[in-house]
Design a protein that fits this description.
- The protein is globular.
- Strand 6, helix 7 and strand 7 form a beta-alpha-beta unit.
- It folds into 2 domains: 185 residues, 3-Layer(aba) Sandwich (Rossmann fold); 112 residues, 3-Layer(aba) Sandwich (Rossmann fold), CATH 3.40.50.920.
- The chain is α/β, with parallel strands linked by helices.
- The termini are far apart.
- Helix 1 packs across helix 2, helix 1 runs parallel beside helix 7 and helix 11 packs across helix 14.
- The longest helix has 18 residues.
- The strands form 3 sheets. The chain has a 7-stranded mixed sheet, with helices on both faces. Strands 9-11-10-13-14 form a 5-stranded mixed sheet, sandwiched between helices.
- The chain contains 14 helices and 14 strands.
- The model has no long low-confidence stretch (mean pLDDT 96).
């Protein structure tokens, strides 16, 4: 007899789904500063964390917020913050700090129009490169892009798991539409979830080095005040945490980037629709993917050989999957709520295997299914 699932269904917006998932996976520390359209995450965590033995702190700004979650993580907590574009700008130095100190933490960026204050109540996808390259130097992070409230729940769980497994900051690139769309979300019981926790040392304190990796390239991580001597510095460092010479520093950067990039095929998650016979493929992510799948289905109903690839992981970039799509397609269309960002990565990876068309949209409005369908139809009619 199949055991009945204990999952429940609730109608909730994406921001609330993020809170629900974070609490379920074990987040017990949140530091943040209110900002539209992410404020509901802070409000939800402020209400709920004290009820489960957690801590919520409203910080004086976003700089303090990201530094606080780094400290909380080293104290043994699963920690998270949430913001939007202007606050995300302020967090970049702290994200670099988390990367070089290999600190597990989750940063939610509910994107809105920019630059600067931009459009505080309108969606955008203008922060995708900032998520990957916003801090200084060479490093690697993971960035996930939900397109529905359900995916906001699922990818929040995944963000914490990836952060704990690879000891990296993980960014959830939501947007205003996903944040405020109310729809059905299925919430599993905690025992039905896969929950990953950071590795703990297997050697006694006297034999432990703060940043000595295991064979998988990832060091175990004790928390402060448990008997281990920890030297945590933002300098390029040796395995003991003290400042490194150029050769050791170079090897550190290779390891920090390699533990993410070398596992890209394991980390990356995409959804494919009708790609088996597709001569044209729409590649979309975030809320734009909602319109894109409708447009593709409308085209398929008319016999057009069109497929779709929805990116749930933006960084590391799912290069092998896109290269495979490009090799068997004639054309790729990339609709985005920006001037054309991820299309540049698609073009780079496609390498001339097929033509690539950018379909940007600005002004704080998402593409309609009709706009994407019109681009599909025009390209097919002109072929």
């Amino acid at each position: 007899m199949t055991q009945t699932s204990k999952r429940t269904a609730k109608i909730m917006q994406g921001n609330d789904a993020c809170v629900e998932a974070a609490l379920l996976v074990g987040c017990r520390f949140f530091a943040g500063y209110p900002i539209t359209p992410a404020s509901e995450i802070a409000e939800g965590m402020a209400r709920r964390l004290p009820l489960v033995g957690g801590v919520f702190v409203q910080m004086e700004d976003e700089i303090a917020s990201v530094i606080a979650i780094v400290g909380a993580s080293w104290g043994g907590w699963k920690a998270m913050t949430a913001t939007s574009g202007p606050g995300f700008c302020l967090m970049q130095e702290g994200i670099g700090m988390a990367a070089i100190t290999e600190t597990p933490c989750v940063i939610v960026n509910v994107q809105r129009g920019g630059p600067a204050s931009g459009q505080s109540t309108a969606p955008s996808q203008g922060d995708v490169f900032q998520a990957r390259y916003g801090s200084n130097g060479d490093y690697a992070i993971i960035a996930l892009a939900p397109s529905t409230s359900q995916e906001m729940f699922d990818l929040t769980v995944k963000a914490f798991n990836l952060s704990e497994k690879y000891r990296v900051p993980v960014i959830i690139l939501s947007d205003e539409i996903v944040a405020h769309t109310r729809e059905k979300v299925f919430i599993p019981a905690v025992e039905e979830l896969e929950i990953i926790n950071r590795k703990k040392p297997t050697v006694p304190p006297e034999g432990f080095l703060t940043f000595k990796p295991d064979t998988d390239g990832i060091p175990p991580m004790p928390k402060f005040n448990t008997g281990y001597k920890l030297c945590v510095t933002t300098q390029l460092h040796q395995e003991n945490g003290f400042r490194a010479n150029p050769q050791v520093g170079a090897a550190l950067i290779q390891r920090l980037t390699g533990k993410v990039e070398n596992n890209a095929d394991t980390i990356c998650e995409v959804d494919e629709f009708y790609t088996e016979d597709a001569e044209m493929v729409v590649i979309a992510y975030g809320s734009v993917a909602r319109s894109a799948i409708r447009a593709v289905r409308d085209a398929r109903s008319e016999g057009k050989k069109v497929g779709m690839l929805k990116l749930k992981t933006l960084w590391p970039f799912p290069a092998n999957k896109i290269r495979s799509i490009a090799a068997r397609s004639k054309k790729i269309i990339v609709p985005e709520m920006n001037t054309g960002r991820m299309v540049l990565e698609v073009e780079r990876i496609s390498g001339g295997l097929c033509s690539v068309e950018s379909l940007p949209k600005l002004g704080g409005r998402c593409h309609t299914p009709g706009e994407i369908y019109a681009a599909i139809k025009e390209d097919i009619d002109n072929a």
